[in-house]
Amino acid sequence: MKHLLRRLALPLLTFTALPALAHNPMCDCVSVAGDQITCTGGFSDGSGAPGVTLDVIGYDEQVLVGGKLGDDSTLTFKRPDGEFYVLFDAGPGHVVEVDHADIGAP
Fold it and tell me: Any signal peptide, and if so, which residues (predicted)?
């Protein structure tokens, strides 16, 4: 009987010891034609983020551009004047900020 319990317990213990599969948020923003910026959001597991909130916020905390990612998980907007950051907000623990100084050319 003890051998049977050990045989059943080992697979169960192995299964419960597996690490949780995390999917971290990711957001990449690049300058595109003219004075436009395109941001692409998603998760480290390769999934997209259509409908997720993406706001462009000035250093004075004023929302300059409010939006949501499209079906292709992107949002394109006119580069604001002055200093700003992009806030990708997929919910608690899934937030990414991209500073204007980190947005390079394509």
Answer: 1-22
Q: Which helix (H) or strand (E) holds 12?
A: helix 2-16
- How many distinct helices (H) and strands (E) make up the chain? 1, 7
Nearest-CA neighbor of 87 among 33, 47, 27?
27
Please give the class, per CATH, of domain 21-102.
mainly beta
Cα separation of 92 and 79, whole Å? 27
Beta strand 25-32 pairing with 36-43: antiparallel
* pLDDT of 104: 77
The number of C-alpha atoms within 13 Å of 17 and in the hemisphere containing its C-beta is: 6
- The domain locations on the chain are 21-102
pTM: 0.77
